[in-house]
Amino acid sequence: MAARTFSVRAPTPMPGWGLSFGIMLTMLSVVVLIPMAVLLWRGFVGFGAAGMWEVVNRPRVWNALELSFRAALIASLFNLVFGVLLAWVLVRYRFPGKRIVDAAVDLPFALPTAVAGIALTAIYAPNGMFGSALMQSFGLRVAYTEIGIWIALIFVGLPFVVRTVQPVIEEIDRETEEASATLGASRLRTLTHVILPMLAPAALTGFALALARSVGEYGSVIFIAGNLPNVTEIAPLLIVIRLEEFDYDGAVAIAIAMLVISFALLLAINLIQIWSRRRMGAA
Amino acid sequence: MNIDIEEISKDFGTTAALHPVSLSIPSGTLVALLGPSGSGKTTLLRILGGLEFPTAGRVLFDASDATGLSVQERRAGFVFQSYALFRHMTVFDNIAYGLRARPRRSRPGGPEIARRVNRLLSLIKLPDIGARYPSQLSGGQRQRVALARALAIEPRMLLLDEPFGALDAKVRRELRQGLRDIHDTTGLTTVFVTHDQEEAMQLADLVVVMSMGRIEQVGRPEDIRARPGTEFVREFISA
Amino acid sequence: MTDTPAIPARPRPFRPATTEPALVKWSLIGLCLAVLTVLLFAPLYAVFDEALRRGWAFALASLSEPDAQSAIRLTLLVAAITVPLNAAFGIAAAWAITKFDWRGKAWVITFIDLPFSISPVVAGLLFILMFGANSALGMWLVANGLPVVFAVPGIVLATMFITFPFVARELIPVMLEQGRAEEEAALTLGASGWRTFLTVTLPNIRWALLYGVLLCNARAMGEFGAVAVVSGKIRGQTTTMPLMIEMFYNEYLSVAAFTMAGVLALLALVTLTLKSALEWRYADQLAATHRH
């Protein structure tokens, strides 16, 4: 057997390897990899883990991190449930205006966050069209409270679950649903025991995407949040505040704390994914 | 159970899938609905199973009108062409599904469900696959699991849509005998849809030849072979 | 056997086994429309309502102010640099990833996706750390007359980071699905590499490319957090349209803020319209997840 030379790439007559790989690696390095490495270097080597822990382990920072992750989880859970429901409605039902509704689901992807921020604030402020109604009927304040943050994050994360679940619903084999009915299951049982488990992996993917997006969200939140330290001050805002004080180490520490928690969460979701795929035998 | 089909017709929009057809199936018979695609045989089967509603006509189960019964109420064991196994459930859970879906008062307990599922697994001669997922089975095994799942609800009849359609010739022959054996053991009135005349002639007690939404001929295989009723039947069975 | 039926035939409407009762169906539709109204349609309406509170003339006048004009120009400039660069990256990355087999591909794809899960504020912070006044590189660049932070290059870099995955993510699945056979055929017919790309690959991916560019552009023009951090928000110099909205808003210039927001909202609506048109018209040439 001839000795094979070690190579990163399998041989192929396809042209353009050097050029395409070169452009990709250069740009990826300049825009993503080197800046990320600088952040991590600055944090773990320059500032040190102990120093970062000291920054993070203060009530104001801790409260901001807790708020960011709690609000993101609440908003993403809402989007998980509502997203599956909306995807179902958009795939299975016919109703007037369906195409417009379907297109509008992507509005949060297309609308700049600052626009969403001031618009949501305008309607949920105590003198806004929904804000005043909620205030008068239920005594509920939305803008400048944590609920306002939830609303902004629900807005931002709305399309993710819908868009991941929609294609899966489209591909459900009708015979599977019919089989459940012929075995005596009610429609509700078919939905909860047969269809929902089939949607779960995609829904979870959408949930993870929405969570990742809303944890770090800044533009749509700061207008509606009120930004009161320890109460409605989100972690990204605290990074901005540290930067404005030229406290770079403080900003780096909070940023790395956010990254660590985010990646832990996403890793957990990924593990659940792998487990559920394996359960289904991943055909 | 006797099944009587009285002047059943079915329109999809402006096209008629079934012209009024009538058919009597004596209890315990193994019936083949034989015909080319578009002959209305699957529509008729789905009407029996409660998956389609006829435009006109009645279906009688043991002389009582079953036309208005929902799918759930019909208790027809239905085996789908794609088998439609629940891929997120083990074989055991697939077979137990119908028992667990029963209302509480008629639902058997856990040990009883396990006993019945295991009995069905031995009936289909696959006693050890309860813990597997459908994706880990061969085509023939899936078909048999689908059959066991349909039998688990103690059906009043067995309906099969092209049960051997997706299988290769060798497995097909084995499973044909398997279906015959299960039919003879359970004594259930069984209706299956096929476009394969050899399959119909070999397996069924009664063959119903269909074409263009009409029944061309009903008879025992040997009678149909000996005396084809129409030109269509003659051509179709000699193909 | 008696003639009396054991089970009475009930004259109730037949419902196919794969559908829900009409009442449930319409309740769910109603619920979805209500939530979308409260969350999506109402804010969109509010933008235009607030912008036109004092009439068209007043709103349009706020756009012709020098600060507003310079913000619009800067946003267009940033998009004009960022989008082509990211499109070039997306095409190169998709070509390298789908036309060749190599080790470490999965890692590279993960890194390309990384910006999706990083806060825009952290993205801004990255470039402050690299090019800011506290870094050697940053001081050297300022000394040589090429400041990055609090200047246009920083805004471009931060925007590029945020929009980095858009084009690549759109092209990779499409090119994977299309395979390599057509390119290989062109090569056997004697076409050069460039000719193969321009005459075979590009026509196959043009709608997917446009789709990615569309989303990339919308995000590039609307980015707020990352740009807010690196720009220094110098009025008339490093203030993009989203930053201008914040400035107007904080100065209680509500009509000016919402008018600028209205311009960006219109851009979003145009983006959505074009995007939907692509999904309906060229579904087969887009990534599978966009097909309806």
From TrEMBL, chain A:
The keyword Acyltransferase does not apply. GO terms for molecular function: ABC-type sulfate transporter activity. InterPro entries: CysT_permease, MetI-like, MetI-like_sf, Sulph_transpt2. The chain crosses the membrane at residues 21-47, 67-91, 103-127, 147-169, 190-212, 251-272. Part of the ABC transporter complex CysAWTP (TC 3.A.1.6.1) involved in sulfate/thiosulfate import. Probably responsible for the translocation of the substrate across the membrane. The keyword Iron does not apply. It holds the Pfam family BPD_transp_1. The complex is composed of two ATP-binding proteins (CysA), two transmembrane proteins (CysT and CysW) and a solute-binding protein (CysP). It is found in: Cell membrane. SUPFAM superfamilies: MetI-like. It comes from the Bacteria. Belongs to the binding-protein-dependent transport system permease family. CysTW subfamily. Keywords: Membrane, Sulfate transport, Transmembrane, Transmembrane helix, Transport. GO terms for cellular component: plasma membrane. It comes from Rhodobaculum claviforme. This is Sulfate transport system permease protein CysT.
TrEMBL record, chain B:
It comes from the Bacteria. One of its GO terms (molecular function) is ATP hydrolysis activity. One of its GO terms (biological process) is quaternary ammonium group transport. The keyword Transport applies. The keyword DNA damage does not apply. Coiled coil: none annotated. Residues 3-237 form the ABC transporter domain. InterPro entries: AAA+_ATPase, ABC_SmlMolc_Importer, ABC_transporter-like_ATP-bd, ABC_transporter-like_CS, P-loop_NTPase. Keywords: ATP-binding, Nucleotide-binding, Transport. This is Sulfate ABC transporter ATP-binding protein. It comes from Rhodobaculum claviforme. The lineage of its organism: Bacteria, Pseudomonadati, Pseudomonadota, Alphaproteobacteria, Rhodobacterales.
From TrEMBL, chain C:
It is found in: Cell membrane. GO terms for cellular component: plasma membrane. Keywords: Membrane, Sulfate transport, Transmembrane, Transmembrane helix, Transport. The keyword Glycoprotein does not apply. The chain crosses the membrane at residues 26-48, 74-97, 117-141, 148-168, 208-231, 252-274. Its main location: membrane. GO terms for molecular function: ABC-type sulfate transporter activity. It is a multi-pass membrane protein. InterPro entries: CysW_permease, MetI-like, MetI-like_sf, Sulph_transpt2. Residues 72-275 form the ABC transmembrane type-1 domain. The complex is composed of two ATP-binding proteins (CysA), two transmembrane proteins (CysT and CysW) and a solute-binding protein (CysP). NCBIfam families: 3a0106s02, permease_CysW. Part of the ABC transporter complex CysAWTP (TC 3.A.1.6.1) involved in sulfate/thiosulfate import. Probably responsible for the translocation of the substrate across the membrane. This is Sulfate ABC transporter permease subunit CysW. It comes from Rhodobaculum claviforme.
